[in-house]
Design a protein that fits this description.
By secondary structure, the chain is mostly helical. The protein contains seven helices and three strands, in the order E-H-E-E-H-H-H-H-H-H. It has helices at residues 9-19, 42-56, 58-86, 102-125, 136-146, 154-169, 176-204, and strands at residues 3-5, 25-28, 35-38. Strand 2 and strand 3 (35-38) form a beta hairpin.
């Protein structure tokens, strides 16, 4: 017999349990966010609760917020350094940045986005992205979608990640347009990241 459970944070947790392969199958039931779960058996039900409790306990939530702040501050330091190096050029126009600093500016833009993404992932899932950075945009997109946070700006993150290898290891010189594009993308992604983090932290308060 399908069992209806609550909305909001519970819905998100049950979806997380489903993603963990516990045997729960959740789907939207009403516009208010209620979900309908089909229990495969009692073992799966207890397994789901075992996953749920550590994620929602006050101690765990405090730890997640603390860990996220580390990644956020790291992202901000990259962003500040990017802005400072850009200002060393003949004007504040990123396309006119000092040629000696173009690579550094563009890579700082990329790494600020990576750290902002990790801060969001820690708040949403409890852990940052690991391994290949190319997989990070997909993980971020899924995490924010599961929590009903608009995520079109994840495409910006994906673009920055896609440019990382060429910026760091490419054979050609970094062009002024590369720098300008990376700076604009980093600023836009940072603005969205703050909104996403605020939304996630509000659900833990």
């Amino acid at each position: 017999m399908p069992t209806s459970i609550g909305s909001g944070s519970w819905q998100r947790c049950w979806r997380g349990i489903e993603g963990a392969g516990s045997g729960w199958k959740a789907r939207p039931l009403t516009a208010h966010g209620l979900v309908e779960c089909e229990r495969h058996d009692l073992v799966d039900w207890f397994f789901g609760l075992a996953l749920l409790w550590p994620m929602r306990s006050p101690g765990r939530m405090r730890a997640m917020k603390s860990d996220a702040s580390v990644f956020r501050m790291r992202a901000e330091s990259f962003l500040i350094a990017m802005r400072d190096l850009r200002e060393l050029g003949p004007s504040s126009d990123s396309a006119l940045a000092d040629p000696d600093y173009r690579s550094a500016i563009a890579l700082l833009a990329v790494h600020s986005a990576i750290s902002f993404s990790d801060a969001i992932l820690v708040l949403a899932l409890g852990s940052p992205s690991t391994g290949d950075h190319k997989a990070a945009p997909k993980k971020l997109r899924a995490a924010v979608a599961a929590r009903n946070i608009p995520g079109k700006e994840v495409a910006i993150f994906s673009r920055l990640i896609g440019s990382k290898h060429e910026l760091a290891y490419g054979r050609r010189n970094i062009r002024p347009t590369d720098v300008a594009s990376a700076v604009v993308d980093a600023e836009r992604f940072a603005a969205w990241s703050y909104e996403a983090m605020q939304g996630l932290e509000g659900r833990y308060s």
